């Protein structure tokens, strides 16, 4: 359809506004200042995952928890200081892992190009490489994020989606980050990787009020989970969200969810909403793996744009755990 001449300036204005909103990040941002940056991250990640394949999930999750609180600005990596309890020490972040690996990759980059590559970009690249190394899709990562100077545990506790969330609540939290229902059902597919502690789902096994199990959970599966999590206070045991292939990035998570074997209420909830249910059931057939890989790449790119600092905002930290 042709745009009428009078409408053209308006259309251009709208385009300019929307591209400004899409964050000022660039593919190849470090091509002059640190040309090997992506290669250094990739090579270090290959070594890290070769030794500890189970770190792929935690590194992907770190990026998500970073982006959902103050945007993708590496605020999740900062240590608490006297007078400030940082995001890292918020309750939902207590189970995060992989901080040492981020410091290790950052140290390599500092040795090659001091003060150039932000921790926020390092984390974004590491999460993409984690997915690739777990046999998932790859996608180009636009770079140029800067590191934030603030980190608050209270913000993390109030802004991260709870495992008990239903679709309306999760959709509201995602919308507050500029992400839609499709991003919610697609990014939940990250639960194809990794493990969870009993407290994240035990309320579905031993209902503390009426002694009943969550009816949205397959009862045979609930029996198996109860053998692992012996009581509501069990904090030691781990369960996979995608049993059978929790170290491989694939579509079997959706098959578990479709069979009412999603581990968290937030996973199970994807079957209750008509739009998310359609997507779960479609990908669960195993006939649309390439579509899921494309969708995941697109939603990760969107998530990596959330609230980024660019230009002269923030700083480029020397160490990811502390301000300069
Ligand atoms: C939709 C809302 C989400 C909720 C409520 C949620 C909740 C959780 C919870 C409770 C855990 C287990 C923590 C533990 O007990 O150790 C977990 C693990 C994980 N989450 Fe999510 N999550 C969500 C979305 C996402 C997204 C968007 C990603 C990444 C794109 C992600 C990636 C992961 C990964 C990889 C793990 C496993 C980490 C490990 O192995 O240590 N999650 N999530």
TrEMBL record:
Subcellular location: Secreted
Claim: Transferase is one of the keywords in the record: no
Keyword set, alphabetical order: Calcium, Disulfide bond, Glycoprotein, Heme, Hydrogen peroxide, Iron, Metal-binding, Oxidoreductase, Peroxidase, Pyrrolidone carboxylic acid, Secreted, Signal
Amino-acid positions noted as binding heme b in the UniProt annotation, renumbered to this chain: 191
GO molecular function: heme binding; lactoperoxidase activity; metal ion binding; peroxidase activity
InterPro entries assigned to the protein according to its UniProt record, in alphabetical order: Haem_peroxidase (IPR002016), Haem_peroxidase_sf (IPR010255), Peroxidase_pln (IPR000823), Peroxidases_AS (IPR019794), Peroxidases_heam-ligand_BS (IPR019793), Secretory_peroxidase (IPR033905)
Gene3D superfamilies: 1.10.520.10, Peroxidase, domain 2 (1.10.420.10)
GO biological process: hydrogen peroxide catabolic process; response to oxidative stress; response to stress
Residues involved in substrate binding: 161
Cysteines joined through disulfide linkages: 34-113, 67-72, 119-320, 198-229
Cofactor: heme b; Ca(2+)
First and last residue of the signal peptide: 1-21
Source organism phylogeny: Eukaryota, Viridiplantae, Streptophyta, Embryophyta, Tracheophyta
CDD domains: secretory_peroxidase (cd00693)
Organism: Triticum aestivum (Wheat)
List of residues binding Ca(2+) 1: 66, 69, 71, 73, 75, 87
SUPFAM superfamilies cross-referenced by the UniProt entry: Heme-dependent peroxidases
Domain (Plant heme peroxidase family profile) ranges: 24-324
Record-annotated site: Transition state stabilizer: 61
Cofactor annotation comment: Binds 1 heme b (iron(II)-protoporphyrin IX) group per subunit. Binds 2 calcium ions per subunit.
Cellular component annotations (GO), alphabetically ordered: extracellular region; plant-type cell wall
Function, as annotated: Removal of H(2)O(2), oxidation of toxic reductants, biosynthesis and degradation of lignin, suberization, auxin catabolism, response to environmental stresses such as wounding, pathogen attack and oxidative stress. These functions might be dependent on each isozyme/isoform in each plant tissue.
Protein name, per record: Peroxidase
EC number(s) on file: 1.11.1.7
Binding-site list for Ca(2+) 2: 192, 242, 250
Family to which the UniProt record says this protein belongs: Belongs to the peroxidase family. Ascorbate peroxidase subfamily.
């Amino acid at each position: 359809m042709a745009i009428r001449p009078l409408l053209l300036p308006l259309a251009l204005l709208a385009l300019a506004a929307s591209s400004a909103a899409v964050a000022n990040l660039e593919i190849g941002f470090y091509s002059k200042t640190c040309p090997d940056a992506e290669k250094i991250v990739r090579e270090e990640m290959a070594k890290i995952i070769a030794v500890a394949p189970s770190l792929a999930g935690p590194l992907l999750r770190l990026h998500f928890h970073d982006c959902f609180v103050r945007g993708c600005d590496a605020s999740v990596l900062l240590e608490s200081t006297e007078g400030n309890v940082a995001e890292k020490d918020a309750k939902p972040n207590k189970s995060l892992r992989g901080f040492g690996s981020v410091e290790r990759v950052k140290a390599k980059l500092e040795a090659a190009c001091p003060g150039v590559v932000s921790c926020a970009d390092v984390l974004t690249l590491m999460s993409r490489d984690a997915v690739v190394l777990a046999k998932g899709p790859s996608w180009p990562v636009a770079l140029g994020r800067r590191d934030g100077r603030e980190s608050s545990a209270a913000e993390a506790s109030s802004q991260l989606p709870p495992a008990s969330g239903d679709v309306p609540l999760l959709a509201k939290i995602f919308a507050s980050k500029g992400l839609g229902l499709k991003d919610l059902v697609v990014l939940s597919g990250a639960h194809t990787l990794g493990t969870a502690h009993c407290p994240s789902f035990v309320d579905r096994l031993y209902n503390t009020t009426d002694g009943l199990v969550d009816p949205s959970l397959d009862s045979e599966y609930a029996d198996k989970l109860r053998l692992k999590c012996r009581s509501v206070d069990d904090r030691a045991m781990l369960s996979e969200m995608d049993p059978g292939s929790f170290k491989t990035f694939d579509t079997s998570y959706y098959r578990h969810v479709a069979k009412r074997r999603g581990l968290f209420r937030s996973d199970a909830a994807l079957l209750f909403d008509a739009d998310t249910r359609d997507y779960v059931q479609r990908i669960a057939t195993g006939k649309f793996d390439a579509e899921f890989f494309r969708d995941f790449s697109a939603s990760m790119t969107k998530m990596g744009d959330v609230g980024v600092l660019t230009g002269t905002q923030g700083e480029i930290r020397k160490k990811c755990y502390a301000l300069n």
